[in-house]
Specification:
single chain; 16 strands; four-stranded antiparallel β-sheet
Length: about 230
């Protein structure tokens, strides 16, 4: 095989750490996981027996939203939400104390899900950035919107206010961040620096959930909605 046919070399990964980063991780007895959509990677950082940094990375296309428990990782990617489970038993002895293996995926279509959480009822709640709402998963539809900011007039593609962050309070979604009070497609881009905001969800008022199948109209409990400008999968 000629050099021209050889596979390109993988890029070298370098981490620059704060001086006390490893000692802080050892003191807290934690590992760290994070995503980067620019390189479509999930990174997990931990420590070896000498408290030196150990890193692992895996490819997930355009991964963003991430939620972790002791045994499970949920990750939102370009068209899917993946569930990874720890495959090691509790009495396993070895170099690693967790090995997360993909076990399930849900097809969502393109939602640009910047964040996700699992609430007290073990329901996945996504920040559906493309449709300017919070949404849950459904086996028959791409997503089910359950909350939108009061200034958003419709569940429609267009990333109107760039919803991006979500935090729980007492097991329920409570705090959401956005980049502007806008109701026009991509309207947040002109005001993002000056208009970023923290929103409080009215979770108790989310009684009407309308399933969305991208590229068509879906109806549930007398509630219908159209997802314009999208393509069927």
């Amino acid at each position: 095989m000629s050099n021209a046919d050889a596979a390109p070399a993988r890029p070298v990964l370098n981490f620059q750490l704060s001086p006390n980063f490893c000692s802080w991780m050892a003191e807290q007895q934690i590992s760290l996981a994070f995503t980067t959509y620019q390189s479509s990677r999930l990174f997990v950082l931990g420590l070896d027996e000498a408290d030196q940094l150990v890193s692992c990375e895996r490819g997930f296309r355009r991964c963003m939203g991430l939620f972790c428990t002791d045994q499970t990782i949920w990750i939102a990617t370009e068209h899917q939400v993946w569930r990874l489970e720890n495959g090691l038993s509790a009495d396993h002895a070895g170099k690693y104390d967790r090995v997360f293996v993909p076990r399930e995926s849900f097809v969502t279509g393109t939602l640009d899900a910047h964040d996700l959480v699992v609430d007290a009822d073990e329901r996945i709640v996504l920040v559906n950035t493309r449709f300017s709402c919070l949404a849950t998963l459904n086996p028959m539809y791409h997503f089910v919107p359950v909350w939108k900011p009061p200034f958003i007039s419709a569940i429609a593609a267009g990333d109107r206010c760039h919803l991006n962050g979500l935090a729980l309070r007492d097991g329920s979604p409570r705090y959401v961040t956005a980049c502007g009070k806008n109701d026009a497609p991509e309207g947040w881009r002109s005001t993002a620096v000056a208009s970023s905001m923290l929103l409080l969800t009215s979770w108790c008022s989310m009684a009407c959930a309308c399933p969305i199948r991208l590229g068509g109209t879906a109806t549930s409990s007398g509630c219908s909605t159209q997802a314009p400008g999208t393509s069927a999968l």
